[in-house]
Design a protein that fits this description.
5 helices; mainly alpha
Length: 159
């Protein structure tokens, strides 16, 4: 698998929930944390992390991976790990007092790219150095794409 395909898979997993949110609005919008608060009286993840988004990411990444020749199971795991990374960053951002959909450069991009790429490392036949490079490329491209999605009124906030 080449650099372009691995980045496409990451963007499919991470972008699908954003597109679906724009399409469905609040329908089927159940927060992963059920609106519960952590002992610090802050949301665990926040209202923008939903079961709908996780399911969408897994389904879209599995489909994308299948068509890229990587196999649906690998895509399913990539989607799951991307969303796990996203939940980790959301949890950390809430602890830091950053509001839901607020920007935290690096924290917003690195976990959702690093976790799937580490798992895919063997399938991709790449080194740890290439994993780090792909995470950096993902971070830069994600910032640009986020601005375009904001300009298109798909994202609520630009990064």
């Amino acid at each position: 698998m080449f650099v372009f395909e691995s980045l496409l898979l990451l963007f499919a997993a991470n972008g699908a929930p954003i597109i679906l949110c724009k399409m469905l609005g609040k329908r089927f919008d159940w927060p992963v944390d059920f609106g519960l608060l952590w002992p610090d009286s802050k949301p665990i993840f926040g209202p923008s992390k939903t079961w709908r988004g996780i399911a969408c990411a897994i389904l879209v990444s599995a489909t994308t991976a299948y068509f890229l020749g990587l196999g649906a199971f690998s895509g399913l795991v990539v989607g799951l790990l991307a969303m796990l990374g996203d939940l980790i960053s959301s949890f950390a951002k809430r602890r830091l007092g950053i509001p839901s959909s607020g920007m935290a450069l690096g924290l917003d991009q690195i976990p959702e790219a690093l976790l799937p790429l580490l798992w895919l490392k063997g399938d991709l036949g790449i080194s740890y150095r290439m994993v780090i490079l792909l995470v950096a490329v993902f971070l830069v491209l994600e910032l640009g794409i986020s601005r375009v999605l904001f300009w298109l009124h798909i994202r609520k906030q630009p990064y």
